C-alpha cells in the first residue's frame, strides 16, 4: 500500500544544459510554481547524493540538482582549456541558474556546495530566498581533524604525504570512509552511494581534475569573513542540519552560524559527513516545516 507522500511524488527528469563549453547534467522534479530548491552537492559526490531527497520533497518543491563540471554526468573538459577553481565553478553554476530563468532560489549546500553557493549568494543576495546548510563550512571553528591534518601537511611542505592523503580520499576505501565514518548506523548507508562516486572517479582525467580542485580549496578560507558579513547583513532564513561526527567539518561549524544568524534553526545529528544517507527522511521533514514557516 502506498503512503500519501509516495502517491504525490513527482516524476524526476534527467536533463542537461549547455553553459559555455560544458554540458551541465541536472535532475529536476516538482512544480516550478512551488519554491525552488537548488541542491549543491559536495566532494566526492554528485547530484546522485540527492536522489532520495528529491523523491521525498518533489510534492512540495521545485527541485534542481546539477553536477558541477568534472563531476557526475556533467562534461569534464581538459584543465588546459577550462579553469577548475571554486570561483569559476560558482560562475558556471550562476550561469546555469540564469539559463533556467530562475529569479528566486533557496540553496541547499553540502561540503563543496558551500564555497560555490556562498560565492553566488554574496554576488546575488536578492536571488537567494533561504539557505539549507548541511556540513558546509564558513567558519574556522568548523574545520575538523581531517582538514586540519591535511592543512598541517601542506604547511610543512609534505608533498608525498599530502598526495598520498588525496589519493586515499579518491580511492573506493577512502570514499566509503567519508560516507560511513561517524554514522550511528553504518548499515543505513547504501553502498550505491560511495560505489557510484568511485565509478565516476574512474573516468579518464577525473582524478587529475579533482586534485586541481583540492589544491584550490585553500582559496575559500580567506573568503569566510566575506560570507559571514553577507549572512550578518542580509539575515537569510537558514536551516542548518549537520552530522556532528563529521571529521571533515565537525559540529562546532554548525553552531558557529548562530554567531551571525541568531534566528537560524540548527539541528545536530548523531551522524557523519553525508547526513542524508542516514537521516534523509528526518531532514526532508525539517525542510518542509522550515519552508511552511517562511510562507
From TrEMBL:
It comes from the Bacteria. Residues 35-140 form the AB hydrolase-1 domain. Keywords: Hydrolase. This is AB hydrolase-1 domain-containing protein. It comes from Mucilaginibacter pedocola. GO terms for molecular function: epoxide hydrolase activity. Pfam families: Abhydrolase_1. InterPro entries: AB_hydrolase_1, AB_hydrolase_fold, Haloalkane_dehalogenase.
